Amino acid sequence: MAESAHATHGDHHEQSFFIKYLWSTDHKIIGMQYLFTGMFMALIGGFFAYAFRMQLAFPGLDIPGWGTMTPPNYNALVTNHGTIMIFWVAMPVLIAAFGNFLIPLMIGCDDMVFPRLNRLSYQVFLLSTLVLLASFFVPGGAFGGAWTAYPPLSAQATYNLTPWGAPLWLLAVALEFAAFLMGGINFITTTMNSRAPGMKMHDIPMVVWMIVLASIIFMLSVGPLFAGAIMLFFDQVLGTGFFDPARGGDPVLWQHMFWFFGHPEVYVVLLPAMGIVIDIITVFARKKFFAYKVVLYTTFAAGVASFTVWAHHQFIAGIDPRMAHIFTVTTLMISVPIAVIVFCSIATLYGGSIRFTTPMLWALAFIFEFLLGGVTGIYLGAAGADIYFHDSYFVLAHFHYTFFPIAIIGTFAAVTYWFPKMFGRHMNETLGKIHFWGTVIPFNLIFIPLFILGLAGQHRRIYNFSMYPDLAKPEFQDLRVLATVSLIVMLAFQFVFLFNFFASMIKGRKAEKNPYDANTLEWTTESPPPHGNWKELPSVYRGPYEYSVPGRADDFWPQNEPS
């Protein structure tokens, strides 16, 4: 079986650069393509955040690197910052990049079961990236109707001043979703059908389970949004009135279709990040993960419950107050399985022999920061409180305390942990820790002030607060300046990471097979893994080892690499 699996890869070393790296079906190359594309888009999304935060802190200033900010520019930057960071950074890196790279290695197979479909998924994703970037250069400029694209305003070119930007934005999102549907098919099918001999369902590493469950949630939730996107596209291009109340349409229908996908989407990106953190803390706490099966089953429960909470985004949209109470209850209930996962992670740390490596620092920061996001979300889940907080800076701060740990901290944890396996070299630990503190401290200084602004009733959709003297009080402006300066500091420290990343790829200390003494299968092959991953595909057996396989219920070890 191993020989036949590798037979298709025999001519890999004779392939040209174009075929080997740009037209590759190797899951590792495709994973790195997603990773580098996501990193590039993160730079763009970060620059957009810098530009519109400068406008908020110093209204009317000629912004270095941008120029004069206009209201349409501001709306376009805010819209596309959110769009990029969610759909073109978090999803391609956490799900596609690490899903592609890790799943075959962690379950002991040589590639995805549908390698050509896997290649096509990245090619469609790359096309979506180009379409989104092209929307900035069409007449009228990029779409500026917020990342939720609420109609009827998002369907009116006269409002958006972007007769081409809005349809291109919508097309880019649709292409990106199609790419991830193809990738999800591969992740699920490969995990269920290509595990190494001896690997049971409860032996699968938690990060693999989380990526698979995230793919299932995505597949089940994206259908209504696809339909809504087609309807909105027709409203924009053909002049139909699906969401125009003047012609019998219903704009609230879009909200239902969007948030039926949009809230499960939170768990689509959350679960892979949690799986990454779980695998890291078990390695660097030198402990078996606390309550593997309980966490696995509660993750299933969270996935099911994620389809029952969407309307808490619509408490002020005129829905029946009796329905609002139901969604308040479901919102509070979904906190339970997520809390179980977080507290089981904390329990894993208790009594452990903890090593504060750079990946472990990121994992611990994820737990701390995400807890703050979760606790503040309880207030927004209550219909009465949400009426006051809705669309304020409190919501924005809560969202970033939820999403920043997922998209940014989770990504840095994964990159720093699996970098030796991906590139065969170690990153510099000192630079890694400088980057860690230079990211986490400014992050809190950005968004804690925004909680205060939200409690004070500051609305988040205001382009220039100096136009509203009652809102632009001096102490509030000081908080906006603090948040903006902290953002600039945080962005500056990202160049430390980029230097460390690319310099380590070239000159970093060479990595051995298993530098962390971890027990998952990816650490039994070379660093970086060869094409086909192993000379002979591994099988696993169980044994009485002191430390369990990270994220697994029982101890087992690869047969060809006994401890």
Low-confidence stretches: 1-11, 544-563
Q: State the order of secondary-structure elements, H for helix, E for strand.
A: HHHHHHHHHHHHHHHHEE
Number of helical elements: 16
Mean pLDDT across all amino acids = 89
Q: Give the C-alpha Rg.
A: 24 Å
Level-2 CATH architecture: Up-down Bundle
Shape descriptor: globular
CATH class: Mainly Alpha
Number of extended strands: 2
Largest sheet: 2 strands, antiparallel
Q: How would you describe this structure to a colleague?
A:
By secondary structure, this protein is an all-alpha fold. The protein has one domain (25-558): Cytochrome c oxidase-like, subunit I domain (Cytochrome C Oxidase, Chain A). It contains 16 helices and two strands. It has a two-stranded antiparallel ribbon with strand order 1-2. Helix 3 packs antiparallel against helix 16 (474-507), helix 4 (71-107) packs across helix 9 and helix 12 (358-381) runs parallel beside helix 15 (429-455). It starts with a helix and ends in a 5-residue tail after the last strand. The model is unreliable at 1-11 and 544-563 (pLDDT under 50).
